[in-house]
Amino acid sequence: MSSDDDPPESDPSPHVTAVVLAAGRGERLRSELPKPLYSVCGRAMASYVLHALANAGVSRAVVVVPPDGRGRLIEQRLREDAPDLNLCFAVQQEPRGTADAVLAAKGQVHTTQVLVVNGDLPLLSAEQIRPVLCHDHNDAVIATAQVDDPAEMGRIVRDSQGRLVATVEYRDADPAERAIREVNLGLYVFRSDFLWNALEQIVAQTRTGEAYATDAIPCAVRNQSAIAVEVELPDGRLNVETPADAANAEAVIRHRIIDRLLDSGAHIRDRNAVWIDAQASVDEGAVIEPGSHIRGNATIAQGSSIGPNAIIEASTVGRNCNLESCTVRGSVLHDNVEVGPYSTIRPGCTIDSHAHIGTHAELKEAHIGEHVQIGHFSYIGDAEIGARTNIGAGAITCNFDGQSKQRTIIGEDAFIGSDTMLIAPVRIGNRARTGAGAVVNKNVPDGGNAVGHPARLTPSRRAHSTTGDEL
Q1: Does 371 qualify as catalytic in the annotation?
Q2: Which one of 1, 19, 171, 368 is most buried, counting C-beta atoms within 10 A?
Q3: Which residue in 135, 267, 376, 464 is the catalytic one?
Q4: What's domain 243-462's architecture?
Q5: Is it the case that residue 471 has pLDDT exceeding 70?
Q6: Neighbouring residues of 232: CB distance < 8 A, sequence distance ≥ 6
């Protein structure tokens, strides 16, 4: 099962377009990445917002991004991890506040309601979005929650009858208002015709250089058409402002992911000692041992055992594999593959079923055939290894000639002796053999037997040579 969000319900809100505010710089987060792309459990913060919207039944979203390279990067990353909704992007040319940001999306909104949401809410869930979608007769609906530590979040002021009076930013709040524990979550629904008129007036009247979307709420309050809908906030807060907030959000989402996987039948030996990203998939019956990291869009099939202390990143692991204390990145491992401790499978590898990789081995851009045995302390780079071939301990494909990478091709049923050095480009034939410590810099024919420094064919095998490039 995927560690991703639960599947969305049927679409109850075709009349709503979400506007996701993702143009902020997030200076308090102290990251070179644009704030919407800050990673929490392997997923960009703004991507969590999009997935929550889709799960709540919102079918269209406009993401407001900054100009130039930052905006293009945000768009690229969010499209790579987009949920099932109609996704488009608008550019806020200058950082002039959230009112201007929402107006930047106006040309792409054609629905009767607009849901405005901050892009830094990785803990946002569909359960918190759905309640604010049920009040389409109001000019403005704001999602709120009661929290023990409101910190610097905006406060919600109500009258004696519980009606919304105002939203107050922390910097503008007096001591009595700062004592309020009901806070603004950064999630709003507006009637479209009300919102555009209000924001255009606000932007036109502002003299500070920045105008805020929340400034439209007092207008709705005066019209007696604004309500605050309190939602459950089981995890303390939604937004991320600092590295400490990000770490707290990571812990919450990590436990959500592990809960879903455990419920689906995955075996996680110690829930506090494994790290599984939001896009990863772990099947029923797979085992994740302590100290293991499952990163990116990695998939672990049924019956496989990962760890202890393994890193699997953006890779596909087939059924009944055993990967112990190793690192696998950007590769495909078919069924019944074994990888021993301290081995590294670098990007671009394909390992066919029943292959065995020993300890302290390294593979890169290699295709390993079925039932291949690769001994410990070996390096196989830019290579193709035929089925049932044995690679002795310490064997190396010397793939770099000082200018470019060269390939090594080894046929089926070959035997490469311990400490053999294969100087690429080179081809080793089917059933060929190399002696321990051989330095092979020319092709070896089918059935050939190469030994020495540099390697030469033994007399009994020399007759099999068929080209001038062979030994």
Answers
A1: no
A2: 368
A3: 376
A4: 3 Solenoid (2.160)
A5: no
A6: 127, 128, 145
